[in-house]
Amino acid sequence: MISQTAEYALRAMLCLAARTGVASGTSAIAESTRVPAGYLSKVLQALARRGLVISTSGRHGGFRLARSATEVSVLDVIQAVAPFGRIHKCPLGIGSHDGQLCPLHRRLDEAMESFEKAFAVVTIAELLQEGHGSLSLCESSGGGHDPTVPANGGLAGPGRKGPKERGQRTGRYPR
Q: What is the pLDDT along the chain (175 residues), one digit of tens a residue?
């Protein structure tokens, strides 16, 4: 329904909304939201270009919301990074469809319009406030990660050794 890029942007916006007024670096946001840092950097830049986040450089720099989470809709975020493609003319270029869409494309466009309307009325603040008993994407146990997942991603644990503990190299190139 929405692109992975749009979901990553929504995760980042929720994370920043949870940290109101505090600038957060890309790596901290990436860790909290489980989004690859390199890709997240591009997503945050797109959000900054659209005026949804502010980027500050320097020692205490990072990203923060450009305006209140109550003023930013889910649609604003989606449209900033991966806009919905509405159908305004026949995508097949069929001349007889000029001026009106065929039943299939008309219904597809109506569905997209419904998504837009639904996402336009939901704010980032509302999503942040909805708990439903589940943890927020950005809650952590002080270590910056989900407390139910080991810091090493579950790759090594009690009774299991990781590559370094087994004496294996983890680099790409031979010695």
A: 789 999 999 999 999 999 887 899 999 999 999 999 999 999 999 999 999 999 998 888 899 999 999 999 999 999 999 998 888 888 888 887 777 888 888 999 999 999 999 999 999 999 999 865 454 555 543 334 333 333 333 333 334 344 444 444 444 334 3
The pTM of the whole model exceeds 0.90: no
Query: Is 1.10.10.10 the CATH classification of the domain at 4-82+123-129?
Result: yes
Give the Cβ contact number of residue 40 at 10 Å. Answer: 23
- Distance between first and last Cα of the chain: 46
DSSP 24: B
Q: 6 has which bridge partners?
A: none
Q: What does the domain layout of the chain look like in residue ranges?
A: 4-82+123-129, 142-175
Distance CA 63, CA 36 (A): 16
Q: How many Cβ atoms from other residues are within 10 Å of residue 87's Cβ?
A: 18
Pair of tokens at residue 79: 């449209």
Q: Distance (Å, rounded) from C-alpha 114 to C-alpha 63?
A: 31
Do 77 and 44 touch, CB atoms closer than 8 A? no
